[in-house]
Amino acid sequence: MRTILAAGLAVGAALAVPVLDAQSSRLNVVFILADDLGYGEVGVYGQTKIPTPHIDRLAAQGMRFTHHYSGAPVCAPARAVLMTGKHLGHAEIRGNIQAQTRLPQFTEGQYPLSAQAETLAQMFRRAGYATGAMGKWGLGPVGSTGDPNRKGFDLFFGYNDQAVAHSYYPPHLWRNAEKVIINDRPVPGHARQPEGPVTMGDWIGGTYAPSLMIAEAERFIAQQAAAPFFLYLPFIEPHVAMHPPQASVDRFPPSWDREPYRGANSYLPHPRPRAAYAAMISDLDGYVGRVMAALDRAGVADRTLVVFTSDNGTTHPGANDARFHIGGVDATFFDSTQGLRGYKGSVYEGGIRVPMIARLPGRIAAGRVDDTPGYFPDWFPTLADATGLTAPADLDGVSLWPVLTGTRTTPVSRPPMVWVFPEYGGQVAVRLGDMKVVRQRLLAPEPGPWEVYDLAADPAEARDLASSRPDLIRQAQEVLRRESSPNAVFPLPIPGVTTR
User: Fold this and answer.
1) pLDDT tens-digit profile of 254-308?
2) More exposed terminus of the chain, fewer Cβ within 10 Å: N or C?
3) Pairing state of beta strands 172-175 and 427-432?
4) CB 239 within 8 Å of CB 38
């Protein structure tokens, strides 16, 4: 073994980096994606009630972005944008629909990516990387064109179907094309209990799926450490239903919960909903710690780029019980959005602005906080740059690698950031520098008006500047006209922009 010296980009110091050979020294990538984790639900983003020491340590050792955005405000389209580098105006998947609604031969899974769609994993696999995914897929059933094995993953283990992932004690998971039965008596993800005592044990099953998925991730790291790998970890926490293990719930004060959640706003009842939600985020933090420990044990932590983020904001209020959000979440109690407007399902900041932390010793400065705007389409070109690979030429994002490594001293010049979201009433948003243009209720008989916000001065989007900034509305309309391609499966007419 020999040693080379690499410049420490933050302060110009030298860093000793062990190099074994050309293959083993290539950069690994671990991309951790939380599910419905709000902007303010981890410590380094302002959370005060739920300890997240491992995620906080990741930020202390790397860079934390304060203006990073998901590609969409709900699960499947966010993941499609991340995997393909195409924003919602160009993405194939722009909403959550089951495959069976259009493809009746499939009884499980979401509408699939096409055979032509190019993913991050395919780029890595072509370059000789081992590729693995453990968690929730949601981009096509087993056997479809969106099957994770057909989209670049050597090994997939977890939930193929987002609906099945509503239960943490499901009947089965998938290992590639094999359906693996894990619970003969699964626990459903939805139930109501209008009366009587709500008991935690009624919703605790035999085999807890997250335990299997994190263990699979640890094995993958150990087995692939000798060669470069790309590991995608779309964990399911803290997406409801809430039924974490009793021991996780017991870590939080009984005084938090004076009333049970009875399932009125969908998903499962729980006697201690605040403690249960905190437990899920704490468990997620524990998985991050286990991943980092696995990298250390394998001796590859210092040549592995680790990214942590979330697919969208925390869940929104429910219609049937005003005391709780969907699934029993209390986003007010936890200050889950840190004052940002909106929740999951919304293109306001609380629905799409997400935590993002990146760590790579010797290349990404420790403890740095950056306000450069970025979003999910950026990850395809960023990871290509980081690993020296060639990304497709038609991506919508820009590489954040110069920002992450400190090699750029001037602000990133980027195209407008675009969201064209046909669900939750139909919504669009365009970020133009610090300004953001939004329009809601596009599918209503009378669509909502155009709205304009100055995110630098008004991150809560409380002061609509539309009456004084018609120029920005015209600019956003032009962007949407140019950047919104037809999509027959997920159509969205935008008044003044499209006629479809």
Assistant:
1) 999 999 999 999 999 999 999 999 999 999 999 999 999 999 999 999 999 999 9
2) N
3) unpaired
4) no
107, 401, 411, 448 from 364: Cα distances, Å: 44, 9, 17, 43
How large is the average pLDDT for residues 436-442?
98
Could you tell me the sign of the dihedral formed by the alpha carbons of 285, 290, 296, 300, in that order? Answer: negative
> DSSP label at 33?
E
CB 238 within 8 A of CB 35: yes
Distance CA 334, CA 50 (A): 8
- In the predicted model, is pLDDT for residue 23 greater than 90? no
Domains along the chain with CATH numbers: 27-405 (3.40.720.10), 417-483 (3.30.1120.10)
H or E stretch including 61? helix 53-61
**Token pair of 250 as six digits:** 């017991």
Structure tokens at 495: 């008044």
Please give the full DSSP string across 143-183, using - where no structure is assigned: TSTT-TTTTT-SEEEEES-TTGGG-SS-SEEEETTEEEE--
Rg over alpha carbons for the chain, rounded to the nearest Å, is: 22
Helix 209-224 crosses helix 273-298 at what angle (to 10 degrees)?
A: 10
The two beta strands, 130-136 and 229-234, are parallel
For residue 301, give the DSSP letter. G
d(C-alpha 24, C-alpha 28), whole Å: 9
Helix (H), strand (E) at residue 437: strand 435-439
The answer to whether the predicted template modeling score (pTM) of the entire model surpasses 0.70 is: yes
